[in-house]
Amino acid sequence: MVFVVALAGCDKGKQSTAPTQLGKVVTTAAYEKYFGAAPPVDKGTAYAFVIYFPSSKEMGKVVPFPFFTFDEGSLKKVAVERLLSGMDIGSYQGEFLSVASGTRLLSLKDDQGIVTLSFSKELNAANSDDFARALNLTLHQFKGVKDIRFQVDGKDVPLTASANGSEDGTVQQPTPPRLLSVTAMRDKGASNVEDVNVFFDRPVDVKELKLFSKDGKPYEGDIYHSVFDMAAVLKPKDSSHFKERLPIRVHWKVVDKLGRQAEGDNVWLLEVKEH
Fold first, then answer.
1. What tens digit of pLDDT does each residue of 62-72 get?
2. What are the GerMN domain coordinates in residue numbering (predicted)?
């Protein structure tokens, strides 16, 4: 489910419909360094952190991505499993290394800051050093983590010097914001979609957003910000048009929380997912 708060299009900013007592967002220093202040939440306590994905374009480098969760207890496990699943999606396809097929996290144990990760035997394959480096950097951002230890197929695997290095010279600075994908959501078994999500690779303020059919006709409806400002959400007046792989021209202009700006006007093929 996508929770949204109202966004007024172009330069109007957010409407003042949010409750006066907002929730809390706990951020890691790494998140703030690469993506600035985290967007507020309406209620509860959220956690903002980064996951470092190993680059396939510049070997030995990692790229930080922002992630959010409301479950503090599973932070480390979520980060590790999400890293293993990769970021081969949307406009980032082909830009990151992938773990060997079948690689699984068997267990994660935290003994007074000594975190031991146990993986299935597949991690012994190519790129294991790159993923060890990414995992090491990802987990060290969390409070209380002192050391990371690896096991593969039940055997201890010492970190190499390159995998155990600091982020200096290893982390690529984020580029300007990128449109990630255009995805429509519908209820399971439903024929029509509920909304169309224009996903970005980080929290952004949307300055301009218009969606057009292939013949240039604008799609009408209300536009909202998603939770964590990671997407602009169109609630279309007529949802019957939006089918899998429908070409949609997206005109957009955004700025992230550190002032990096980006814009584009491109055709995207719609993805349709059920929830």
1. 999 999 999 99
2. 76-161
Residue corresponding to tokens 């031991």: 116
Whole-number Å distance between alpha carbons of 241 and 254: 26
Length of the chain: 275
Q: Which residue has the tokens 């007592």?
A: 21
Q: Is 5 helix (H, G, I), strand (E, B) or coil?
A: strand
* One domain for residues 100 and 144: yes
**How many other CB atoms sit within 10 Å of the CB of residue 127?**
17
Contact partners, residue 108, CB within 8 Å, separation at least 6: 76, 77, 80, 115, 116, 117, 118
Is the distance from CB of 230 to CB of 202 less than 8 angstroms? yes
pLDDT given for residue 20 in this prediction: 61
Least confident of 17-31, 119-133, 173-187, 215-229: 17-31
Buried b (16+ CB within 10 A) or exposed e, 111-125: eeeebebbbeeebee
Q: Are residues 138 and 28 in the same domain?
A: yes
Residue 22 confidence (pLDDT) above 90: no
Give residue 175's pLDDT band: very low, low, confident or very high (50, 70, 90): very high
Question: Is residue 106 one of the residues assigned to a domain?
Answer: yes
Query: What is the spatial distance between Cα 53 and Cα 164, in angstroms, rounded to a whole number?
Result: 15
Q: Tell me: do 225 and 149 sit in the same domain.
A: no
**Interstrand relation of 45-54 and 24-27 (parallel, antiparallel or unpaired):** parallel
* Cα–Cα dist 37/42, whole Å: 16
